[in-house]
Amino acid sequence: MNAYMPSLINIWKRRKKTYSCRLCGSSIKYLYTLDVLAKHKVRYFECNGCGSLQTELPYWLDEAYKIPGVHIDVGQAARVIQTWIRLIFILENIGFDKSAECIDYGGSSGLLTRLMRDSGFNYFAFDLYDNAKYSNYFSFSSLSGRQPALVSAFEVFEHLPNPRVAIEEIFATRADLIVFSTQFYDGQGPDWDYLVPFCGQHVFFYREAGLADFAEQRGYALRRTADFLVLVRNGSPYTLHVVAAKAATVPTGFFGDLVTRIGWGTNDTLRDHVYAMERFQKELVEK
Ligand SMILES: [Zn+2]
User: Fold this and answer.
1) Is the pLDDT of residue 10 over 80?
2) Counting C-beta atoms within 10 Å of the first and last residue's C-beta, which end of the chain has fewer, N or C?
3) pLDDT tens digits for 190-200?
């Protein structure tokens, strides 16, 4: 073997990866090419197995995430607030144990985590690419060894360059519930607005049946509620509750009640404040 062989092998491996589905490993067929970040000619493929749509293996993500702020995603703040209200509603509806550990995967600014903690849930943020500024004392840098009862992942799955690896990592926690949102692919064309190619961050689009099969093979059932998609672990204590709550919608007045329940001075914020004060002062002295 000469000195060039390892790099040739890497190129071959990379090419091989590009031409198989990054969720199920089946062969993929070329559909069309779009301009990503207004300059990269990126090919989009459909999987012959799970039916998912995916870009070629993304090489532009550093560039896409380097652009500061939320830029075109002007709905992000409202989405966090809406998600918070709907999540509290559904979790209270199914009798979720508030003391159980929950992780917001791809938690970004940590705002949802903070609001969930303010609402009495034992929530933590996890994001490899953001600093969870609203909940930095309540965040994890790895999922390894964690056993949360719930993992949430809102508008995250379509960002995953290697969904098989990332979703299997979430399944490995054996969480009772994985609550998430994404838009499913069902044959939409290159003008589908969820592709947002100029932004470069959406790189994988799941067929509902394909994701359901993938999950089923790993012990999870894909369910829907009025507001969310939920992967329910086989044997989860919430299985029947999720089915029973599938059509439940947030009633008028729920938000008003919720607002009066949270905020500075409640038991939940005081608990976190005491912990944060102790940690902050300890870290000041250690500096
Ligand atoms: Zn596939």
Assistant:
1) no
2) C
3) 999 999 999 99
Q: How far apart are CA 53 and CA 26, in angstroms?
A: 12
Give the amino acid at 199: C
The rounded Å distance from CA 118 to ligand 1 centre is 39
pTM for the model stands at 0.91
Q: What is the pLDDT of residues 11-70, one digit of tens each?
A: 555 554 458 999 999 999 999 999 999 999 999 999 999 999 999 999 999 999 888 777
Look at residue 1 and tell me whether its pLDDT is greater than 60. Answer: no
Stated as kind and residue range, the H or E segment containing 18 is helix 5-18
Q: What are the backbone dihedrals phi and psi of residue 276, each rounded to the nearest 5 degrees, phi first?
A: -65, -40
Beta bridge partners of 150: 102, 177
Indicate the fold that domain 76-187+206-244 takes in CATH: Rossmann fold (3.40.50)
Distance (angstroms) between ligand 1 centre and the Cα of 138 equals: 35
**Torsion over CA: 197, 200, 202, 203 (sign):** positive
Strand partners, 35: 41
Measured distance CA(52)–CA(187) in Å, rounded? 9
pLDDT in tens, 234-245: 999 999 999 999
Phi and psi torsions of 82, nearest 5°: -60, -45
Residue 71: pLDDT above 90?
Answer: no
Q: How far is the CA of 72 from the centre of ligand 1 (A)?
A: 29
Tell me the mean pLDDT in the region 102-108: 95
CB 206 within 8 A of CB 184: yes
Angle at 131 between CA 158 and CA 177, to 5 degrees: 50
How far CA 216 is from CA of 7, 91, 228, in Å, comes to 37, 23, 18
Strands (E), the chain: 28-36, 40-47, 53-55, 101-105, 122-126, 139-140, 150-154, 177-181, 204-205, 220-224, 229-233
Query: What separation in Å is there between the alpha carbon of 60 and the centre of ligand 1?
Result: 22
Beta-bridge partners for 175: none
| C-alpha 21 to ligand 1 mean position (Å) | 4
